[in-house]
Amino acid sequence: MTGPMLETKNLTFGYDQRSTLFDGFSETFTSGEMVALTGFSGRGKSTLLYLLGLMVKPDRGDVAINGADTSLLGDAARARLRAQLIGFVFQDACLDSTRTILDNVLETCLYRSEPRSRSRSKALALLESFGVEGHVDSRPGRLSGGQAGRIALCRALLSDPAIILADEPTGNLDAASAEIVTGAFRRRAAAGAIVVVATHDSTLVAQCDRSVVL
């Protein structure tokens, strides 16, 4: 079976007419590779992840997944495609402080219209594999940055996504937690996923197959 492919085609985007971040940007990300997005702050690394993740629409050009353009899809169709194929790790963990850790991990079931009960055992196994199983009934308020980062990774990996997009995933982590996160990305790429990380972390960049400098 052919693995996923993610492409930008002549992508143009700016938040206003005076600040164009991308002008005809084209790049291909293929199955089994882990790619670092690098460059100075403000060059659009996070924005490119949002474009790749179908959270933001380009002004012109397109993002294609497995050869299929997404520019003509409505918001609901883009959301369904994102839920089916993409796992996102945000720059901060973005955990809901009003919900338990287990509920935070299971949150993505809602977007896939999947019963939470079906994924509960897998969520618990992921939390155990990343050493945060003791917090399943707790709320995120007292977690360390490393713990929160690993829980956010569990949430992103719950659906075995074909595409993983991560925004500075090791930026707020201690060295041990950063190594755990990087190892998880490498294993997902080895299993055939596309992993794209926006990062300033030279250690993480060294673990990637290649870099795209913005």
From TrEMBL:
It comes from the Bacteria. The lineage of its organism: Bacteria, Bacillati, Actinomycetota, Actinomycetes, Micrococcales. The keyword Nucleotide-binding applies. Keywords: ATP-binding, Lipoprotein, Nucleotide-binding. Signal peptide: none annotated. Residues 6-214 form the ABC transporter domain. InterPro entries: AAA+_ATPase (IPR003593), ABC_transporter-like_ATP-bd (IPR003439), ABC_transpr_LolD-like (IPR015854), P-loop_NTPase (IPR027417). Belongs to the ABC transporter superfamily. This is ABC-type lipoprotein export system ATPase subunit. The keyword Chaperone does not apply.
